[in-house]
Amino acid sequence: MKILVINGPNINMLGIREPEIYGSVTLDKIEEGLREYSKNFKNLELEFFQSNSEGAIVDKIQSALKENIDGIIINPAAYTHTSIAILDSIKAIKKPVVEVHLSNTNSREEFRSVSYVSKAAIGTVQGFKQDSYKMALFGLYNYLNE
Ligand code: DQA
Asked: Rounded distance, CA 133 to CA 113, Å?
């Protein structure tokens, strides 16, 4: 089983960027932690992708069809609240997608309460900083093994 983990704009700035909101762990460390955590699950392979560009994220989501990806974990970052293109690409591939956020977007500015990606996600995990990704992996793995 292969799960693709996608991170959107400015997630590569973790560690420097607003640590009081996002924590001080870098994206490299989050990915390393997920790789370690994934050893708890049988027959699971992870692939990581980060981009600051909306089109590159859409291209990567579309590539899931050719690359035999079983499911996607995505933190679309600011594109969560704006991107119909990312929403449409998720709908197009018909694969389970879990939305992740480090912060609880519902307790922040009003504009962060809107998520286009949620319309197509099987579930959302948010507010647990880097652990949100682990919880999403647990949920998606079990969903795929149902
Ligand atoms: C975020 C929340 C978004 O509102 C914000 O634009 C981000 C990060 C999070 O993980 O908490 O870049 O997706």
From this structure: 19
